[in-house]
């Protein structure tokens, strides 16, 4: 049976943030992840931008016809775009495949007034650690740009609505990564 799928490259890689199943690891060619600021959003978000020289890992999962409205609501800042030709995976029956991306014309340079939430980064990296292991989480860091975006430490009181509890090892990985990236962390 042919189905419609999404390709997730951020929080959707973390299976604990959604109920779409079965999930499969996948790779998108021609896209690069970046932390983005938008004029109408108080916080930075993770998006993808076209880049013919880039390849990113993520997760695909089927979306029932009635599920697209909810997924579109969750991804309200993004445009749903066709990704079928650029995503490789080992799943049979994928007839449609969407990726969510912010309109590149709306992306602004990072600034101190639009930080990324540590609770959001925790969720994303937890997903990559669980799907791809530490090497895959390192690839996420290496294939994502925009790390000049300041990081708001909201771990004690998460602002991100799908925040997860990290293991000690996951938390250490995220904290070490932020040090290596030279991230500016604010309280």
In short:
This protein is of the alpha/beta class and 187 residues long. The chain is built from three helices and ten strands, in the order βββαββββαββαβ. The chain is globular.
> How many strand elements?
10
Spell out the helices and strands N to C: EEEHEEEEHEEHE
* Sheet/helix structural class: alpha/beta
CATH architecture name: Roll
Task: Summarize the structure in words.
- The chain is α/β, with parallel strands linked by helices and about 190 residues long.
- The protein has one domain: Gamma-glutamyl cyclotransferase-like (Hypothetical upf0131 protein ytfp), CATH 3.10.490.
- It has three helices and ten strands, in the order E-E-E-H-E-E-E-E-H-E-E-H-E.
- The strands form two sheets. Strands 1, 2, 3, 4, 5, 6 and 8 form a seven-stranded mixed sheet that branches. The chain has a three-stranded parallel sheet with strand order 7-9-10.
- The mean pLDDT is about 95.
- This is ChaC-like protein.
């Amino acid at each position: 049976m042919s189905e419609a799928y999404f390709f997730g490259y951020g929080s959707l890689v973390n299976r604990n943030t959604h109920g779409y199943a079965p999930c499969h690891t996948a790779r998108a060619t021609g896209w690069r992840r970046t932390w983005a600021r938008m004029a109408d959003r108080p916080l930075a978000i993770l998006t993808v931008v076209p880049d013919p020289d880039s390849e990113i890992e993520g997760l695909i999962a089927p979306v029932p016809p009635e599920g697209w409205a909810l997924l579109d609501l969750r991804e309200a800042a993004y445009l749903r775009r066709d990704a079928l030709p650029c995503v490789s995976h080992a799943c049979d029956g994928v007839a449609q495949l969407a990726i969510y991306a912010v309109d590149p014309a709306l992306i602004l340079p990072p600034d101190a007034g639009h930080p990324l939430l540590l609770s959001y980064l925790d969720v994303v990296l937890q997903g990559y650690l669980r799907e791809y292991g530490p090497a895959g989480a390192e690839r996420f860091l290496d294939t994502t740009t925009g790390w000049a975006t300041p990081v708001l430490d909201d771990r004690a009181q998460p602002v991100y609505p799908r925040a997860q509890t990290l293991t000690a090892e996951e938390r250490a990985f995220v904290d070490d990564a932020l040090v290596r990236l030279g991230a500016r962390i604010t309280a």
